[in-house]
Amino acid sequence: MKQFTFQTPSNIRFGAGVSSEIADLLKGYKAAHVLLVTDKGVRAAGLTRNAEAAIAEADIALTVFDGVDADPRSDLIEAAAELCREGGCDAVVAIGGGSVMDTAKLVAFSLVGITNETKRGLSLSKPYPGHRISH
User: Fold this and answer.
1) 46: alpha, beta or left, given left = phi > 0 and alpha = psi -120 to 50?
2) How far does CA 11 lie from the centroid of its chain?
3) Which of 56, 58, 61, 113 is the most exposed place for a label (fewest CB within 10 A)?
4) Whole-angstrom distance, CA of residue 106 vs CA of residue 121
5) Which residues contact 130 (CB under 8 A, 6 or more apart)?
6) What secondary structure does DSSP assign to 30-95, as a single string?
7) How many helices, marked H, and strands, marked E, lie in the chain?
8) Number of domains in the chain
9) pTM assigned to the model
10) Per the domain annotation, does 87 fall within a domain?
């Protein structure tokens, strides 16, 4: 596959070896502590190894959340967000599929604060333990 960058408010990079370039992107954001969001299968397959190594080599602190499963439930999102807040993370990186991306986006969103208004927009106006975010 030919490498390319899909630029939106978030950076989504595709292509062989691009995960080893993550440190340069994080340095551009002046990130000091990163939460890497993934799932156990992706991590066990070694697909996060290059990114983890690049982050470590750049002296950026790293916390890994690899508990994502299909159609993540709200309590999983909240657990990842809490880990992020407790660790003082200032950046979120996702390596994996759609559920990993969804989880990472909601965790990153929580870093800037979720108000009652934004909760209504996300259909999360009431805390439902175990409620699935996507259908």
Assistant:
1) left
2) 12
3) 113
4) 12
5) 73, 74, 75
6) T-SEEEEE-BHHHHHTTTTHHHHHHHHHTT-EEEEE-B--SS-BHHHHHHHHHHHHHHT--EEEE-
7) 6, 5
8) 1
9) 0.77
10) yes
pLDDT digits (tens, 9 = 90+) for 70-111: 999 989 999 999 999 999 999 999 999 999 999 999 998 887
Task: Write b or e for each residue in 107-120: b if 16 or more Cβ atoms lie within 10 A of its Cβ, otherwise e.
Answer: bbebeeeeeeeeee
Confidence of residue 46 (pLDDT cuts 50, 70, 90): very high
The domain of 44 spans 38-97
Cβ neighbours of residue 81 closer than 8 Å, sequence gap 6 or more = 106, 107, 110, 111
Decide if 130 is inside a domain.
no
Instruction: Fill in the amino acid letter for 125.
Output: S
User: pLDDT tens digits, residue range 11-39?
Assistant: 677 788 888 889 998 998 899 999 999 99
18 DSSP 8-state letter: G
